[in-house]
Amino acid sequence: xxxxxxxxxxxxxxxxxxxxxxxxxxxxxxxxxxxxxxxxxxxxxxxxxxxxxxxxxxxxxxxxxxxxxxxxxxxxxxxxxxxxxxxxxxxxxxxxxxxxxxxxxxxxxxxxxxxxxxxxxxxxxxxxxxxxxxxxxxxxxxxxxxxxxxxxxxxxxxxxxxxxxxxxxxxxxxxxxxxxxxxxxxxxxxxxxxxxxxxxxxxxxxxxxxxxxxxxxxxxxxxxxxxxxxxxxxxxxxxxxxxxxxxxxxxxxxxxxxxxxxxxxxxxxxxxxxxxxxxxxxxxxxxxxxxxxxxxxxxxxxxxxxxxxxxxxxxxxxx
Length: 319
Hints:
Blueprint: E1 11-14, H1 18-21, H2 24-51, H3 58-86, E2 90-93, H4 94-127, H5 129-135, H6 138-163, E3 173-174, H7 181-185, H8 193-226, H9 231-259, H10 268-291, H11 295-318
Parallel strand pairs: 1-3
Antiparallel strand pairs: 1-2
C-alpha cells in the first residue's frame, strides 16, 4: 500500500489505568497532592541550596539538577494523567503525544547521567578525599552538569528528527497513561526497525554506561569504607552516600523492570504500576530521601523558615 493511501492519525486515545477511573475523586485528589508535594519539595531543595552558603558544594549542586529533572518529568506526565482519569481515557494530539515522549526521554536521560556524575563525586569524596577539592572545582562541576544536559538534548534531536518523519496510521489507541516509546512505535505504519535499533544503541552510552560507572564507583566506595579502622568513620562515610544509593536503587530498579525484563514476564497492569512509580512517585520522594537525616539541609530549612516568619511579622508590624 502506498503512503498516499494511508489514513494518517492526528489524535491518540490514552486508556490510562482503568482501576483508577472507578475511584475518580480519590485518585485525582491523591495525585494532585502528589504533584503539589513533588513541585514544592523539589523547588524547596533548589531554593535552600541557592540561599544557604553551607550547601554550596558539588553534591548539593548536583541534587538541584536532579530536582529540575524531577519537576520536568512530573509536569510532563501528571497533568495529562489526571485528565485521562477524569474522562475515563483522554485524547491527546499526535504532536502532543510525541512531545510528551521526547520530554520524558530527555529528563530520564539527564537523570541517568546526573546519577553517574553524583556517584563519581561520592567516589572522590570517600576514596580520594585529599584531592577532592582540587578535582571537583566549581567550573568542573558546571562542565559536568552542562555535559549531562547537552547530551540529553542531543538525544532529543536525534530522536525528534526521525520520529517526525514516521507515518502514524493507527490504531490510535495507547493502553497506557502516557506516551512511551514502544506504544508510540506500535502506532506507526512505517518501518521502525532502524529507528528502534538506533535508540537501543544510544541507550548504551546514555543509560547502560552510567549504570556501569555507578556500579564500579560503589564497588570502590564500599571496599574503601570496609577498610576504615573506626566505626565512626564507617558510619559517616555510609551516611554521605546512602541517600544517593537509595535513589539509584529505586530509579534503576524500576527502569530495568520496565524496559529490560521481557514483556511476557510483566503483565500490562504491572508495567503501568512500575511506570507510575518511575514517573510519578520517585520524583516526589527524592527530595525526602536526600533531606532525611541530613543535618545541613535541616539547618538550612530552619533558617529559611525563620527568615520567612521574620519577614511576615515585620510586614504585619509595618502595616
